[in-house]
Amino acid sequence: MSTPLDRLRELQAADLPVHGGRTLAYVYDSGLADVDRVGREAVAAYAGSNGLDPTAFPSLLQMENDLVGFYAGLVDAPDTVVGSVTSGGTESCLLAVQGARDSRPDVERPRMVVPSTVHAAFLKAAHYFGVEAVVVPVGPDFRADPAAMLAAVDADPDRTVLVVVSAPSYAHGVVDPVAEIAPAAAARGIRCHVDACIGGWVLPYAARLGREVRPWTFAVDGVTSISADLHKYGYTPKGTSLLLHRTPEHRKPQYFAYADWPGYTMLNSTMQSTKSGGPLAGAWAVVQSIGDTGYELLSREVFEAVDAIVAGVTDIAGLSVLVPPDSTLVTLVTDASCDPFTVCDEMGARGWYVQPQMSYAGHPATIHLSVSAATLGGVADFLTALRASVAAAVAAGPVAVDPDVAAFIESLDPVALSDADFDGLLVAAGLIGGDDLALPDRMAEVNAMLDLASPRMREALLVAFLDRLQRPNR
């Protein structure tokens, strides 16, 4: 008789692989089976523990402080630094914005200044917390433009509560000029948060290995907080990130306490109240297992993989690296002979997941790679698959969207998108099989359609699509 665990294994068979280094987005693989086992066992051991009350579960507090202390040593943190473990990069970013907002109760309509390459989590924070996001175009090198960022600050300095920079940005993998922006923000009395969610665990080791790394840590005057995800290049189980503040005073607005009700006095350090101790314990166990020397070795391996991929791409006609990567993220761009969405499909058919990125602000669609240490052993196979995928995309030619469908998309209003409008697009995209949504095996045509839509229209379409996907199984 089939058990629930048997059924889980059947369901998981349709998912992208989380080990083997062939999924170059969403997951990060150290390639260390023993470390993965330790992490899973620690998660299971603490699955029932509750991080709500550190006096009830002091071991969780001990592990949290250990993790913050370990990371503080990597980012030139002063003795005053404090930090929290959160559920992921998005929660760390949300808290950075919420804390900056609540540090200035005198400001009625707070605003923050961010580069156009900032992670969407900050726009989510702006939406949730009523903070105006002033989005500033980046320079031709895809990095935040210091002069433009500071001009945006100076347009309304009294309402500006936060400036955000990335180390590195997700879409392009480059580090913003933190050393030029953070001190200028500090001179104006404004916080500066460095979003190092994806690079914060490898960039310190990159510098140690002799790679050129732009300054971005607490060594830069004016950096008031840094976010870094453990479940990315810390290679821990999913569900943990770090948010460090320069001083306890910077963190204090992040806390929430409430006593004016008949129950227990609520006291939270993050957005969650009840939270499983499992992810925290898993992160602590993995960091203890790998250690500083282990992370240096893993960083050496992942950068060796990055360098090999960048060098290999130069030999593939029709494909190039958009901008030299500062960290472990590589962005590829095709020329007019080759459709990037078809390349992604072809790579999937060859057992590699690479992530399509839509065109933006006059720049073409690109292909994103988040390289893991475990990818190193498969780089030769990756490049062989990439070369064949590009050749197949060139042979297939550009993806053509039916002119009538393109005109229909152009005519739609994202605010007034109706079920009938959406159903028409589903039929045109081949996403309806019988009475149900059915994802096609190849997504190039769907992605080409989405790429024609404006960002607001794309959002509306994907929200409608997700709403259709998330319906009860009966």
UniProtKB/TrEMBL annotation:
<keyword id="KW-0456">Lyase</keyword>
<dbReference type="InterPro" id="IPR015422">
    <property type="entry name" value="PyrdxlP-dep_Trfase_small"/>
</dbReference>
<dbReference type="InterPro" id="IPR050477">
    <property type="entry name" value="GrpII_AminoAcid_Decarb"/>
</dbReference>
<dbReference type="GO" id="GO:0008483">
    <property type="term" value="F:transaminase activity"/>
</dbReference>
<dbReference type="InterPro" id="IPR015421">
    <property type="entry name" value="PyrdxlP-dep_Trfase_major"/>
</dbReference>
<keyword id="KW-0032">Aminotransferase</keyword>
<dbReference type="GO" id="GO:0030170">
    <property type="term" value="F:pyridoxal phosphate binding"/>
</dbReference>
<keyword id="KW-0663">Pyridoxal phosphate</keyword>
<dbReference type="GO" id="GO:0019752">
    <property type="term" value="P:carboxylic acid metabolic process"/>
</dbReference>
<comment type="similarity">
    <text>Belongs to the group II decarboxylase family. Sphingosine-1-phosphate lyase subfamily.</text>
</comment>
<dbReference type="InterPro" id="IPR002129">
    <property type="entry name" value="PyrdxlP-dep_de-COase"/>
</dbReference>
<protein>
    <submittedName>
        <fullName>Aminotransferase class V-fold PLP-dependent enzyme</fullName>
    </submittedName>
</protein>
<dbReference type="GO" id="GO:0004058">
    <property type="term" value="F:aromatic-L-amino-acid decarboxylase activity"/>
</dbReference>
<keyword id="KW-0808">Transferase</keyword>
<dbReference type="Pfam" id="PF00282">
    <property type="entry name" value="Pyridoxal_deC"/>
</dbReference>
<dbReference type="InterPro" id="IPR015424">
    <property type="entry name" value="PyrdxlP-dep_Trfase"/>
</dbReference>
<feature type="modified residue" description="N6-(pyridoxal phosphate)lysine">
    <location>
        <position position="232"/>
    </location>
</feature>
